[in-house]
Amino acid sequence: MKLTAKVQVLERNLRNFVGDDLDPLSVKELQSLEQQLDTSLKRIRTRKNQVMNQSISELHKRTRALQEQNSKLAKTKEKEKTVSEHPKRGLETIGLGQCSGTLNLICQPEVPPPPPPQRLVPSLNLRDALQARRTLEMEETGEAQTVPRSNNSLIPAWMLQHLTN
């Protein structure tokens, strides 16, 4: 019995809130209903503002975090760029130098490797040797203008002389 009465009251209140069945209500009941609707709207607006402010503050935090991450990535990219521009100086440009051992606390700066020793034995590359011999022979005999020059040819100059004469 009590349960059915409560259900009927709730259904009537729902119809009143929706705007149906307002004719049997008195002026005082209508004013009370209007006040209830106003307070409910105020609570809804307050909660909506709280949620929006929380989401805005979260977005500001994310923005700051992304900006920090972006600046860190830009710095590491710049370091990598300087390292790639100066590969011989590598770690020295960052300021680390070269460390020997895992527990060594003092690092020595990187020393560039010594230049390769001069070749005492002539090159065994046939193409270079033939080209060098051909230019020497042409300079000695003065045939530089008469013999057609071909950089891609492996044929010695004395074999080309019969083609031009």
From TrEMBL:
Single GO MF annotation: DNA-binding transcription factor activity
Pfam families, per database record: K-box (PF01486)
One cellular-component annotation, GO: nucleus
Residues in K-box domain copies: 1-84
Superkingdom of origin: Eukaryota
Regions crossing the membrane: none
Identification of the protein by name: Agamous-like mads-box protein agl8
